[in-house]
Structure formats: structure tokens, C-alpha cells
Amino acid sequence: MKLLDDLQQQLGQLQVQSLQRRRRTADSPCAPRVVVDGRDMLAFCSNDYLGLAAHPQVVEALREGASLYGAGSGASHLVSGHGRAHAQLEERLAEFLAPHLEQARALYFCTGYMANLALLGALGGADAMIFSEGMNHASLIDGCRLARAQVQVYPHGDIDALEKMLIASTAATKLVVTDSVFSMDGDIAPLPQLLALCERHDAWLVIDDAHGFGVLGEHGRGALEHFGLRSPNLVYMGTLGKAAGVGGAFVAAHETVIEWLVQRSRPYIYTTAAAPALAHALLTSLDLIAGTEGHARRAHLQALIGQLDATLTLQRWQRLPSITAIQPVVIGANQESLDAAAALHEQGLWVPAIRPPTVPRDTARLRVTLSASHTVEQVAQLARALNALEARTA
Ligand code: PMP
User: Fold this and answer.
1) pLDDT grade, residue 18 (50/70/90)?
2) What is the distance between the alpha carbons of residues 270 and 77, in angstroms, rounded to a whole number?
3) N6-(pyridoxal phosphate)lysine occurs at which residues (predicted)?
4) Which of 109, 113, 178 to mutate to test the pocket of ligand 1 (most atoms within 8 A of CB)?
5) Is pLDDT at 21 greater than 90 in this prediction?
6) What is the pLDDT of residues 346-376, one digit of tens each?
7) What is the residue extent of each domain of the chain?
8) Which is the closest atom of ligand 1 to the Cα of 136?
């Protein structure tokens, strides 16, 4: 069969280039200590930044949501799948973000990937121009592909280049689209400058705060709170499967933008609504994020980030400047990164190697992610292991 032969040949090439990916199977809840492929490991790879994925109150709320609303929604939102829990979650999210958005309304999606497709597909019509940051997440890139708008990519963090593009554009609708916290580097986009540019040039600023919502800001309101942003030009996307510990995502913006998405975004309209029990559990996640427990968890996470920074003494492997929970160690070659991840695995540490195309060529890396559920001793163990491993492979 030619088709299968072709695929097998391409899969073989991935293996030769050390680009083949493999999944590991976890047998325990998402937590620092996990059982993976039958082995007890210390994990530094989840995006469960606040440790809510296995939080007893969130798990109990999920159970309660299932008994109240059943296992599935049964239909798409515009048919009959929109439940009370979805509606409550959207109201709570809009209230939570109201300090940063004008006439805020929120819309819950099954995943962040779909929210980005929905958003860019619906706002990026044929008369629009999308200005997309060079290091954006794959879901934003795919959203640009789905949109009928023209797309220009501006270099990572380059405000001047973006301004020139905005000045040159005569498009009726302009959308500047960026991750807030870049998922593979951990750095933060210069959002205040980007917003000022957008306001000056009558453009929307679309922020994907997948890695900021719940983590950044005094109350966990993410990048908007971290920078104290407020503007009618903002369209905000936050995910709920990372710091919020459950799943799904939302877009929050002016109510007119949200109504447009309800009417026009295909990834919202033509899919079965997420289980209402998830939305019900997320109400508890939001309480935790906004309350004293969330505050304490964010403070602990910040302390762990500082601890890792102070105790890693890497020379050859490159640390990237990151004040977030994403702490990459760039090794360069694909195979060397895989070897490093394998050596850590031998010692019972689970740190994923990330390779192209997820990151640019020759920047394969260990992507360390920290969580508020890690202990000081666990982070110390990671730092010791990384320092020793680099010295050993020199
Ligand atoms: N945006 C960014 C920046 C992400 O890192 C991710 C997930 N890795 C997504 C969007 C997609 O979110 P979800 O996992 O909910 O589909």
C-alpha cells in the first residue's frame, strides 16, 4: 500500500532526526509525585501551576457537578447543550475580569485551542489584517490560517516593527495577536506597549493568557492584572486546564464581541458543549484562585521560581530569562536534549525534552514547569540533578 509505505518512511525519518514523540501513561492524578508507566516519578512537566488539578475541593465539585448535571451536555450550546453551570461560570468569569474590560462578558469553550480558532476565525474577516507575534502558540497560528484575513507576522517582542506594519495597513479591522506568557520560553510580552500601540492605531489587542490566568496578578486575574491593563480594545483568552486545574477555556471581551462569537464562530457553534460538571468544578477553582488559598499558592510558586533561579549553576546549557513558572533549559541539539531527559528519568525525575517544530531548530530544550504543589526540597532535588547532569555531560 503506497499510502502506508509513505507514512512509514516519514515516521522513519522523524526517528532518524530524533524528532519522534512518545507518550507516557500516567496512572495517578496530576501532582508532583506521579506514577508513570508503572514507575513513581517526581514531575516537572504539567501546567497545573497552582496544584488545583487534584485539589480535594475541585475533585469534590466535579463529583457534585456530575450528580447535578450528569456526565455530558448532550448537544451544542445553541441547540440544547448550554447548561446552568456554563451560564454561571461565564457570569463569574466576566465579573472576575470586569476591572480590566469594558462591559465585560465571557464565553466558555471546550479547549483553548478551539477558543483561539473561534476568536480569530470570527473576528478576522476578509477586511481584516492580523498582526501575529512571531512566537505565538500553534493554536493562534492555526486560528490565523482559519481566518479569511491577511496575516503579517512581526518579530518576537519587536514593537517598532509592529508599529511600522500598523501604520502601513489600511485594513478596516486590525487585530494584534499575542501570547502573554510564551509557552516554550516563559517570557512575557510587553503588553502595556502593545496596548498603547493598538489604541493609537485603532486596533484590537488579542491576548492569549493560557499561562498567566490564575497565576499572574494579585488576585490571579492574569496578565491584565499583572500590568494593570484596562481598555475597550482588549480581547482576552484564558485557559482553564492549566492554573484552574480542570479544562476548557474562555474568551472575555466587550459584550458585543462575545455576542458576535456566539453568532459567528464555527468552533463554538458546531461542537458539543463541554460537560456541565466541568463548568461546575471550575466555579470552585475560581473561588480558590481568587481567595486567600490562591494568594498563598501564588506566593509559594514565586518563591520556588526564585529558589530554582538562585540554585541552578548551569554554564553550557542556556537558561532563558523567565520570571514565570515556565523555566526552560536550552540544550540545542535534539538528541542531546533527549539524552538529558532520559538521564533525569533514570533518577526518577520527569522533565520533558521539547524539540522542533514546537521550538525553533537547534533550540531543543528541557522545559521545566514549576507548580505551587512542589515543595522546596523537590525543587532543590531538581536543581542538584540538573547541575550534576550538565557537569557530567560536558
Ligand atoms: N494557548 C497557549 C499559549 C497554550 O500554551 C495552549 C496549551 N498548551 C493553548 C493555547 C491551548 O489551550 P488548551 O490546552 O486548553 O487547548
Assistant:
1) confident
2) 9
3) 242
4) 113
5) no
6) 999 999 999 998 999 999 999 999 999 999 9
7) 23-54+292-392, 57-290
8) 3
pLDDT (tens digit, 9 = 90+) per residue, 147-163? 999 999 999 999 999 99
Residue 394 three-state SS: coil
Ligand 1 center to residue 393 CA distance, Å?
33
Q: Which CATH class is domain 23-54+292-392?
A: alpha beta
Using one digit for the tens of pLDDT, what is the confidence trace for 199-236?
999 999 999 999 999 999 999 999 999 999 999 999 99
Q: What is the ipTM of this complex?
A: 0.99
CA distance 157 to 38: 43
Q: What is 54-123 written as a DSSP string?
A: T-HHHHHHHHHHHHHH-S---SBIIIII--HHHHHHHHHHHHHHTTTBTTEEEEEES-HHHHHHHHHHHH
Helix, strand, coil tally for the chain in percent (to 5): 45, 20, 35
